[in-house]
What we know:
The protein is α/β, with parallel strands linked by helices. The chain has a ten-stranded mixed sheet with strand order 14-15-16-13-12-17-18-32-26-25, with helices on both faces. A six-stranded mixed sheet has the order 9-8-7-10-11-19, with helices on both faces. It has a five-stranded parallel sheet with strand order 29-28-27-30-31, sandwiched between helices. Strand 25 and strand 26 form a beta hairpin. The longest helix has 29 residues, at 125-153. The radius of gyration is 28 Å and the shape is globular. It starts with a helix and ends with a strand. Bound molecules: NADPH dihydro-nicotinamide-adenine-dinucleotide phosphate. NADPH dihydro-nicotinamide-adenine-dinucleotide phosphate binds at residues 166-170, 193, 195-196, 225-226, 229-230, 233, 244-246, 249, 252, 268-269, 301, 351, 398, 400. NADPH dihydro-nicotinamide-adenine-dinucleotide phosphate is lined by residues 166-170, 193, 195-196, 225-226, 229-230, 233, 244-246, 249, 252, 268-269, 301, 351, 398, 400.
Amino acid sequence: MTTLLDLFKTMEYGPAPESPAAVNAWLEEHGRKFGLFINNEWVTPKGAKYYSSYNPSTGDLLAETAQAEKKDVDAAVAAARAAFESWSQTPGVVRARYMYAIARNIQKHHRLLAVLESMDNGKPIRESRDVDVPLLARHFFYYAGWAQLMETELREYQSIGVIGQIIPWNFPLMMLAWKIAPAIAMGNTVVLKPASYTRMSALLFAEVVAEAGLPPGVINIITGSGKAGEMIVTHPDVDKIAFTGSTEIGRTLRHLTAGSGKKISLELGGKSPVVVFDDADLDSAVEGVVDAIWFNQGQVCCAGSRLIVQENVAPRFLQKLKTRMGHLRVGDSLDKAIDMGAIVDKSQWDTVDYWVKTGAKEGGNVFQPDIPLPTTGLFYKPTLITDLDPAASTVQEEIFGPVLVSLTFRTPEEAIALANNTRYGLGASVWSDNINLALDVASKIKAGAIWVNCHNVFDAAAGFGGYRESGFGREGGREGLFEYIRPKWMDRPQPDFTPPVEGKKSTWGETIPARPSRPESNRVNGHGTPQVDRTPKMYIGGKQVRPDGAYTLAVLDAKGKVIGQVGDGNRKDIRNAVEAAHAAHVAKPGWAMRHGYNRSQILYFIAENLDARNAEFVKRIVEMTGRRQKSAQAEVDAAVERLFTNAAYADKYGGTIQETTLRGITVAVNEPVGVIGIACPDEYPLLGFVSLMAPAIARGNTVVMVPSPRFPLSATDLYQVLDTSDVPDGVVNIVTGDRDHLVKTLVQHEDVDAVWYFGSAEGGYRVEYESAVNMKRTWVGYGLPRDWMDREQGEGHEFLHEATQVKNIWVPTGE
Ligand code: NDP
């Protein structure tokens, strides 16, 4: 007899199509042809070329959109610049009302936006309806709140100006919200370019904004190719670039903006691990993997595309996963009953297919379930590749499609090593019922978002962004605001340097300028006998070392008299110093793993020992710089004070609990960046050095310091202070010599995670340009004035922000 249960088992879902009628009516209203949205108006560029947008599920033409040219980009930037004058002066409480109106208007047009998004991108309507559009509204509500609070909560900051924003095709509306909402909340105006594959929803959004009454010019949307994107990026009147997309284009943009004074945030690719321990609820973990890799057909920057499962449960887990894959439904994006929609474009489909074939060639076992695919449209089966070597390119490279690779591990240490065996660091999930283990692993994986027993959970109240080659900067949360503000004391940075034509060979930092090594005048002490020679050395791995090249540089006083000789460092010295700093960082327990309390004690101790030798340092500064005693005394006192400030911050900047929509806890941890190379300014040789070193080490980084080349002796005196202050070996390393020559090696070094540079404008350009090698973070002064004696300019949040990167750990609670 057939039971009811048997009947259910054989029943199939029927199609449950969402109607495209409202979207088609909107497209028809526009004659299926769109211009650019500038100053709240549709502008039809004269003689423009047009580009066709198709629905990837059906292949149907949606509309034609304009290809912006230079004059169009100029017009959009000019509109944004004009609007900035008034928008930045509009009180935050008024900006908040506009943003609230936008959020409300998004909710009114929720369905239209969701259906258009699915038709344009190919993603399941279930996702655009329940994830993309709700998050779009949520971001405008959330950042309306920050507009409201800017004057009280961020009173020491100001708006930046015109922001150029370039977004990808995988989450067109969500990416737009992540970028536009914080930017306009902080009083900036925007020129945004959507990706060519998915231009439509940004254009509908433009109308939603205008309907909500936002003043003209605050948000401008222009469509065009990557060339138009480049025109935005290089436009002289754009103050900041926010980009999400491939690491390759991110690198190009880093090159294009180098030395310009433009801020830049890059949210790039990933190859995020999903780590499943044997004590995890395996059925939940299977559902987690489905969310991790088949959400949006795997076209997600933080897709859990590397499954790392404990060896003893791997066969059982993979079998469960394969069974589940056999129940996934792939089909038209407007069918409410599907799990996976279409791949965005044929070229992306080809890329995915190429990688699956490569996986097979690399020895992988490719599994695709026996499920039906629609006969038309760009559909791809969910795919699992097992038995690959961890070094296989399919395991290392971002595929950006519905393809999961799987590896196994035995111990937690091995799981962490595998998880971190990538040049990326965007997201990760950890699956275990042992909360101690899960949180321990979460703290050790190097990525910006770690989900415990969940994956791909997002909210406006928590920042998102990468470690390593996944980029830098955060979108979302309070931390996301700092991409869109500048300290109030700082003018718009306009470096006095014109970058050379891209690709032109540079000699910057190549050679050490020849400086005659002049003999020091014979010094005698008070008894008429020669003073005992005291040669300043370099300081690497806690040891005083001579320069590798055995050359020295004469240090002159203000009148040109030789007052000392310091080591003339070279590439080898920098490599040794980086090695020492790296070892101190990764040691068990490394500097970063020490308690803030312990680090603060050491910083206080440095301050104590520096103060004990106060008079000696004053004398040294007077001797080197020719400044008055009073001024040198003020500098030494300020340096001691700065050490105190940063000792205080060593245990007061750890992070926060984010108030997200997750039922559970979202913890933002301010983690150290890693190894930081720091080139110090010439002004205030001791204070500049201390102002940069102290926040870096207070927050758990290890450093390679390049002191002022003109006035290095206060830095070489300082290592004796460090030696007596319990600073562990390798935490602070000091290499003297030519600043640019040394920094060139630092910025090109793969084991250096960030470079801070306070030298010339040209040096600022080179540092930013070269940093693209591994997308390291940079902080440069462009040779612009900064008063190191002023507390506002020499310490505080700006420094701590540069010394940390935010990791958000999501922990759902409940049974
Ligand atoms: P791209 O990085 O090429 O494109 C992202 C955005 O940048 C698009 O708006 C694109 O415009 C624009 N762009 C392209 N070239 C330039 C340029 N020289 N200057 C300024 N802007 C430019 O990503 P794709 O869309 O081509 O995807 C390629 C790969 O990137 C994917 O396979 C995937 O691996 C990865 N990717 C990662 C994403 C992430 O979120 N991390 C998101 C999307 C892609 P246009 O569309 O007109 O070319």
